Amino acid sequence: MSDSFDLVVIGSGPGGYVCAIRAAQLGLKTACIEKDNTLGGTCLNVGCIPSKALLSVSEKFSHAEHDFAGLGIDVGKPKLDLKKMMTHKDKVVAANTQGISFLFKKNKVTHLVGTGSITAAGTVEVSGKDGKKTTVQAKNIVIATGSESTPLRGIEVDEKQIVTSTGALTLDKVPASLAVIGGGVIGLEMGTVWQRLGAKVTVIEFLDRVLPGMDMEVSKEMKKILGKQGMEFKLGTKVTGAETKKGKVTLTLEAANGGSAEKLEVETVLVAIGRRPYTAGLGLEKVGVNVDNRGVVEIDDHFQTNVPGIYAIGDVVRGPMLAHKAEDEGVVVAEIIAGQSGHINYDAIPGVVYTFPEAASVGKTEEQLKESGIPYKTGKFPFMANGRARAMAATDGFVKILAHAETDLVLGCHIVGPEAGTLIAEVVAVIEFGGSAEDIARICHAHPTLNETVKEAALAVDGRPIHI
Ligand code: FAD
Ligand code: NAI
After folding, report:
1. End-to-end Cα spacing for the chain
2. Which one, of 145, 141, 111, lies nearest residue 128 by Cα?
């Protein structure tokens, strides 16, 4: 007799592992299947966590190199020990992935090692690396198999000279030059890491702007600031070919709308043009689960696919490919399966780019409001006018709050600045509670903090900022 579970989750990324833990908390007999050696998915192994480890330490390196002397700290030219930096990153990853194993044991989630394949509604086959197959019965199945990096036609990734984000996290030396194809989140974050450590970084972006999902003012400010840090941008440009030879890659570039070709010779190339849902080997066609033409698993408002009892969450379904979005969906789907009701407000999911300064965003962009004809007011406040930012010598950027012109409800907030990812949390909470710009303006904010910039931007919505 095969083992039988109330819920089998396929994939242990932030969507899958959080879903499994929440389901177990609710009393469901739960298993989580993972094909890789460690738990935690893209996020913990090759995504959020290792990239933030490298971003954090390379930021310290950059401050030591460029900023300390001006602040009266003379440490000379810092020397890079890349191996040690990578060891730090690896230790952070290990601590986090082992933490999930501990949480599975604590919550009595059964960890099944192998590749999960749905053979029929209610039945999942697990194939181990040794070729051994076991079958488990599942009253409910949650697909949380995540995403993989989108390939670029004509560019062969070898994860050494031409890398995806995964290879960019493990380079064994700083390349003299790095071409980044794609000026999105991965491109700017990983480009920043290697630029800080000494690479000459050129970002090649198809569109005429970086960070296309974000508010236009944020995109412009980020390009300006990163440009000052030494990053070069080739916007409105496409890569049409790559030739690899003797430690060099020669890229052929063309204007996005056609034109004469130019060559760019670099040591390393990072392909970061987006990610796509990963469903290989899951057996979706066999059980008849619908996916759209981009491979996105189709779900209803309760995360259920067209096959009853099979649900899907995280990067494999619609919406932003973000760890916290996957986690929240994991919680909600577990609660729905356990008979509770669940809901996610997709207008209150923050997005953060962890460069220095950071960029953070929640709710509608100004362009989206214009397009949908929603009347709005804008309040903007620069970090240059904030005492704490001046004290920290981190005055680049601004906070911009967008509020409804008639009701004053906060519709969006866009920040470029120090700790932007932390500052945005206040506005996320206000949006979630249906609050107004006036609410933020009337909340007491500690002084001197960066958060006062959010309050001043809220005051600026009504034309009454104090400090500018
Ligand atoms: P994943 O984390 O991709 O996990 C899916 C898991 O399923 C994997 O472990 C995979 O091995 C497993 N799996 C797949 N198929 C099977 C199968 N058939 N059987 C068994 N197991 C299977 N997001 C943020 O919010 N903040 C960040 O700072 C951030 N940084 C990122 C940096 C990088 C470099 C990258 C690549 C991504 C980053 N992301 C970030 C995005 C984030 O990692 C994803 O949104 C998140 O991991 C999605 O979670 P998930 O659970 O849907 O899938
Ligand atoms: P992305 O969608 O953020 O950016 C891809 C960029 O590549 C876009 O600007 C796009 O216009 C450009 N592009 C597409 N095709 C191109 C081509 N042929 N030539 C040149 N440019 C091209 O995707 P990215 O950066 O790969 O990240 C994938 C996902 O991972 C994102 O959805 C993001 O949400 C997530 N992520 C989140 C992070 C965070 O929250 N801090 C960090 C890293 C990744």
Report:
1. 72
2. 111
Confidence bin at 150 (pLDDT 50/70/90): very high
Residues with CB under 6 A from ligand 2: 152, 181-187, 189, 204-207, 212, 238-239, 272-275, 320-322, 351-354
Ligand nearest to the CA of 256: 2
**The pairing of beta strand 310-312 with beta strand 133-143:** parallel
- Ligand 2 mean position, distance from CA 202 (Å): 15
Given a contact cutoff of 8 angstroms between Cβ atoms, the answer to whether 374 and 404 are in contact is yes
Is the pLDDT assigned to residue 258 strictly greater than 90?
no
* Cβ-based neighbour number of residue 31 at 10 Å: 25
Digit-coded pLDDT (tens) for 404-432: 999 999 999 999 999 999 999 999 999 99
DSSP assignment of 308-373: TTEEE-GGGSSS---HHHHHHHHHHHHHHHTT------GGG--EEE-SSSEEEEEE--HHHHHHHT
Ligand 1 first shell, C-beta below 6 A: 10-16, 33-36, 41-43, 47-48, 51-52, 115-116, 144-147, 165, 186, 278, 281-282, 314-315, 321-324, 326, 354
CA 33 and chain centroid, separation: 23
Cα pseudo-dihedral 43, 45, 47, 52, rounded to 10? 100
Decide if pLDDT at 1 tops 70: no
Residue of the nearest CA to atom 40 in ligand 1?
48
Residue nearest to atom 34 of ligand 1 (CA): 47
- Tokens 């189709």 correspond to what residue? 298
pLDDT at site 11? 98
Measure 272 CA to ligand 2 centroid, in angstroms: 6
Alpha carbon of residue 406 to chain centroid: 34
**Whether residue 402 has pLDDT greater than 90:** yes
Distances (CA, A) of 383 to 362, 455, 463: 19, 12, 17
Task: Go through the domains of the chain in sequence order and give each one's CATH number.
Answer: 3-149+276-344 (3.50.50.60), 162-273 (3.50.50.60), 348-461 (3.30.390.30)
Q: Give me the pLDDT at residue 103, please.
A: 98
Q: Provide the 3-class DSSP secondary structure of residue 192.
A: helix
Contacts (Cβ under 8 Å, ≥6 apart) of 108: 24, 30
Which residue's structure tokens are 């949006």? 431
Active site residues: 447
Q: For residues 437-463, b (16+ Cβ closer than 10 Å) or e, as one string?
A: bbebbeeebeeebbbbbbbbbbbbbee
* Residue 12 burial (10 A CB sphere; 0-12, 13-18, 19+): buried
Q: What percent of the chain shows pLDDT beyond 70?
A: 100
